[in-house]
Amino acid sequence: MTFKPAKWPRKLRSQEWFGGSSRDNIYHRGWMKNQGFPHDLFDGRPVIGILNTWSELNPCNAHLNALAEKVKNGIYEAGGFPVEVPVFSVSESAFRPTAMMFRNIAAMSIEEQMRGQPMDGCVLLVGCDKTTPSLLMAAASTDLPSIVVTGGPMLNGYFRGERVGSGTHLWKFSEAVKAGKMSPAEFAEAEASMSRSAGSCNTMGTASTMASMAEALGMALSGNAAIPAVDSRRRVMAQLSGRRIVQMVKDDLKPSDILTRQAFENAIRTNAAIGGSTNAVIHLLAIAGRVGIDLTLDDWDRLGRDVPTIVNLMPSGKYLMEEFFYAGGLPVVLKRLGEAGLLNKDALTVSGESAWEQVKDVVNHNEDVILPVEKAITQSGGVVVVKGNLAPDGAVLKPSAATPSLMVHRGRAVVFEDIDDYKAKINDPDLDIDETCVMVLKNCGPRGYPGMAEVGNMGLPPKVLKKGITDMVRISDARMSGTAYGTVCLHTSPEAAAGGPLAVVQDGDMIELDVPNRRLHLDISDEELARRLAAWKPRVTPPDSGYAMLHHKHVMGADKGADLDFLRGCRGAPVGKDSH
Fold this sequence. Notes:
four-stranded parallel beta sheet; 14 strands; about 35% helix
């Protein structure tokens, strides 16, 4: 940790708008004053943009307006000038075809708001699984002092005495209905128990994972990730973060000071320890690309391979985020990593302290929630990266949510050309499939299903479910929800729509999955594979207008974070010229 605070006081970028007596300065100040802001707020103090992803069509973030008020209080208390700015809010629960389609444009639009407006620092007020990475990507590109405040997870759900995890039980109950073990009426009754308070997923889904990633990267105050949305301590965290961002601006503590390779290594190992979502792979690759760090899939496999999964949360375990918070939350996990020599202790955080200084004295209050290493859910957690002739650039699998007996498996391919083909066939009793088969889904990657939807955890066919089987090997170029589970190979790269080998898999081909040896192999000769690829023709028609066209033309593969190619490594926040 070698950060040296900047000299204070000094002229901030907001003074290009508000400082002085020119016509342009008076123009900018005068319009702002129609909101009742006193003149002395424009005296050179830090102007802090509260980038608020509130939206009633984004349920995870629908409570953020109340948190924004607490952030404002903290900024005022520290001598700053808060300005709340609504920004692009992307929700997986409502956006079609998938929120992932719009993560990049959200990041791009927010980046330009940060560049083009008089902000000296930013509070990234986020909640759901896409708002957290999109705002981190924007902050990484602009390099303005920034701090993350997440909205927090929902309270536990309960249904007939059973702890219900958001998402995880949706998949479980849906499969039970298909298997005839749960009635549609019971399924509908369970719906009311799944989301009983404000907040994001209460499982270790992607929202909770990305909140944890923000904290592990050092971009949020220690303890931020797990506080429930409705807990008063969430509001305290928001206010403290408001205070802290003002000092960060004075010190000129920027994302580039925090988002170092050491920080990303800490986040990857943390993801392994918490049993985090495979979606974190794509998002961290994208964020790293924005700061010019060459993070790769091989880093994910290398750094996470020997990290045990010690957080006993759904979908890997049995508890939910509420219990995780009561047990001590992410600081306890980071302390465990530090004690095991798996934490870059000197990594700088938004607090101005090192990662280790923040957590060295924390206490684990429940060792059934945050497990001792010897009782870990899996001793080799993290995200496994498998490669082979079926995935030359890699595919990912989450061991803590997979079935151990399927980690080495050879089976006959049952192919679905796209998600519509899957939906048309999967419930057909005549479908030639059994539990030994390998389900293959194509054309659902960044280009194929625009944005790469969470359809990789294909539901099993009813004829298999009725045997009591709950898992099969599944392979696709899609993503899956962080709340989901199963032996699922995801993000297969290159994707089918780009002409990757996945595109030419045929019904009846034999596929080998060997997780211990990191291998995913299509059992055909090199010559046959080359012949099929030479004859391949794309099934996906490129869009001819709008953002969809831009996305299709410029989106990179999942192994590169599915970001837009022209946005990687773009840094700096110029003021620009005044047109008045």
